[in-house]
Design brief:
alpha/beta; 2 domains; nine-stranded mixed β-sheet; two-stranded antiparallel ribbon; 11 helices
């Protein structure tokens, strides 16, 4: 069955960024001139997935506005002759089929995915976390879909991390079967480096068969009363194979302040219109800090 839908869980409070997220969703924070969530949506579009299911909360209306058609703005840009900007905003609002479903209680990532079941139906589907940007030469979702088309089972994207970073991620224990493809035996959530079964960390991109919904319904709540997606995947492993594909990509976690700052800097340094001035400014900052240190 063809993969046609993607679920983007975006209902979280974004408490790491308070008070900024009191009125503005963290997924709408700009990476220079494009909000984080648009990168994820464009990733889906590039993989020919235009049915985007946003699992939202009542404080996430700016996301809905962003992907809606704004005729007044379009008219203004047209009158001003800003054709490139006009093209950009028209494309993102017209190319996707946005579907919004409310997660009425914050009961974890697993619960957010389960909320989407009535819209997904009995189909395979993508889950893409709304604060993770993945930059690869080739679309990661396309690679995952290829693995699904071969094996007909769920697929999780993973990438290699340094030993010191292992406690930040869910880590897989898997058997290598061919280039970049593994069969998963187990998953461990944020283990100590010495207890980790590998250094292959979950990226925040999943492709599930609809059987995951059965497992989410019987997954007991964990810490804080939340239903964890990892726990449901473990239950899924009892019934069917789950595959992992290792990607060689740059993974940006914009869900933490330092990760967000690093993402903005990296993307700015990759832009010809910003790079030189930013480098000069950073050099000035470094120089000033050295001078201050020398005078202490």
């Amino acid at each position: 069955m063809q993969v046609r839908k993607a679920v983007l869980p975006v209902a979280g409070w974004g408490t790491r960024f308070l008070p900024a997220t009191k009125a503005m969703p963290k997924e709408m924070f700009p990476i220079i001139d494009k909000p984080v969530i648009q990168f994820i949506v464009e990733e889906c579009l590039s993989a020919n997935i235009d049915n985007i299911i946003f699992v939202t909360g009542r404080h996430k209306r700016p996301i809905e506005h962003h992907f809606d058609i704004n005729t007044d703005l379009e008219k203004h840009l047209e009158q001003c002759g800003k054709t490139e900007l006009l093209k950009n905003i028209m494309e993102i609002s017209r190319l996707i089929n946005p579907i919004y479903i409310r997660q009425k209680e914050q009961l974890g990532l697993g619960h957010a995915v389960l909320v989407a079941e009535p819209v997904v139906g009995y189909e395979p589907f993508i889950v893409a976390l709304g604060d993770i940007i993945v930059k690869d030469e080739r679309n990661v979702l396309e690679k995952m879909i290829e693995v699904y088309n071969r094996f007909g089972k769920s697929v999780i994207a993973v990438f290699e991390v340094d030993t010191k970073d292992i406690p930040k991620y869910g880590i897989i224990d898997g058997r290598h079967i061919e280039r970049d493809i593994y069969i998963i035996d187990d998953l461990v959530e944020k283990p100590k480096p010495e207890e980790a079964p590998s250094n292959l960390a979950i990226v925040g991109r999943y492709l599930f068969t609809p059987k995951i919904f059965e497992k989410l319904k019987i997954t007991p709540p964990g810490k804080g009363g939340e239903i964890q997606l990892t726990d449901a995947i473990k239950l899924l492993l009892e019934d069917e194979a789950v595959y992992a594909i290792k990607i060689d990509a740059k993974v940006y976690d914009t869900g933490t302040p330092i990760g967000y700052i690093q993402t903005v800097l990296d993307f700015a340094l990759q832009r010809e219109d910003l790079r030189d001035e930013l480098i000069a400014y950073l050099r000035q900052l470094i120089s000033n800090n050295i001078l201050q240190t020398d005078t202490v």
